[in-house]
UniProtKB/TrEMBL annotation:
<dbReference type="GO" id="GO:0016616">
    <property type="term" value="F:oxidoreductase activity, acting on the CH-OH group of donors, NAD or NADP as acceptor"/>
</dbReference>
<protein>
    <submittedName>
        <fullName>3-phosphoglycerate dehydrogenase</fullName>
    </submittedName>
</protein>
<dbReference type="Pfam" id="PF02826">
    <property type="entry name" value="2-Hacid_dh_C"/>
</dbReference>
<dbReference type="InterPro" id="IPR006140">
    <property type="entry name" value="D-isomer_DH_NAD-bd"/>
</dbReference>
<dbReference type="InterPro" id="IPR006139">
    <property type="entry name" value="D-isomer_2_OHA_DH_cat_dom"/>
</dbReference>
<dbReference type="InterPro" id="IPR036291">
    <property type="entry name" value="NAD(P)-bd_dom_sf"/>
</dbReference>
<feature type="domain" description="D-isomer specific 2-hydroxyacid dehydrogenase NAD-binding">
    <location>
        <begin position="119"/>
        <end position="294"/>
    </location>
</feature>
<feature type="domain" description="D-isomer specific 2-hydroxyacid dehydrogenase catalytic">
    <location>
        <begin position="54"/>
        <end position="325"/>
    </location>
</feature>
<dbReference type="GO" id="GO:0051287">
    <property type="term" value="F:NAD binding"/>
</dbReference>
<keyword id="KW-0560">Oxidoreductase</keyword>
<dbReference type="Pfam" id="PF00389">
    <property type="entry name" value="2-Hacid_dh"/>
</dbReference>
<comment type="similarity">
    <text>Belongs to the D-isomer specific 2-hydroxyacid dehydrogenase family.</text>
</comment>
<dbReference type="InterPro" id="IPR050418">
    <property type="entry name" value="D-iso_2-hydroxyacid_DH_PdxB"/>
</dbReference>
<keyword id="KW-0520">NAD</keyword>
Amino acid sequence: MRRVLLSASSMIDPDAFRTLLGDAVDEPVEIAVAPLGSTERLVEAGSERGDGTGFDAVVVDVDTPVTAEAIDALGDDLEAVVRAAVGVDDVDVAAAADAGVTVTRVPKYCTEEVATHSLSLLFACLRSVTPYDDAVADGRWAWEDGRPVRRVSASTIGLLSFGPIARRAAEQLSGFGAELIAHDPFVDGDRMRERGVEKVKFDALFDRSDHVAVYAPLTESTRGIVDADALSRLSAHSVVVNVGRGPVVDDGALAEALDSGAIKAAGLDVLAEEPPDDDPLVGRDDTVVTPHAAWYSEDAREDLNRSAAADVAAVLAGDVPAGRVDPNADWL
């Protein structure tokens, strides 16, 4: 019998896994569900069997870091760590590879959703939706409460990273007439030009952009890359959107830029600490914050579970899963 541990997460549907694995795996599969959310809980749940056997695969969401210690503690039976998400920034992929454990992710399930959400945040900030809404709720009815608002077609929008989500956002933005530029050291200029986007260096992205949307994954090279210096290159009418990972943006520097009026507003789906605890970027008139929900649609959730279960099935069958993470990838 094969054994699979699922995080008790609202993103992960145990019934979908039971159905999909039951159809795809030739031998019986026992599925256990446990509240994870931390490395300690993962280790505890993975060692509670008491019969000398462990789990062949664990399926976790973004709330559960999978460290080298956790991989070691989960035992020799472990074959796969399946991240039910796009990013693997808190999975020790190198340690997993050393232990012979395959790490997988689901890179495409929410491309459409996150791209659309990034534009929703951008336009909410550009069009001063929150200030207008607050003013109307307070009994005011004045267009001046949202000033200043500038025309989208007269702006330059910078994309930090040019992976699948940013590329889809560029497609969606193409009809608005704005100039699009992007910085991504792993994507060549020809590939960007094919999509009507100019490749620029990092500093130029902030020097030239009226607004910047961050799609970058969290790595050692991207942590805190949107810092005070980068933000100082923007203008007082600028909007910063982050749908990548919270720590890519220096939240203290962003709060200071907003406080000083150096930029207009920020639209954030990710924060340095989630959920936030007294975060200076939450509850402001000049920010729109959503709870790491850019990924969500019912369609995306179904795709997520289908793809993650298919990866588990592939590993258990000795095949290469579609979502396998290359431990030698430059972006890790």
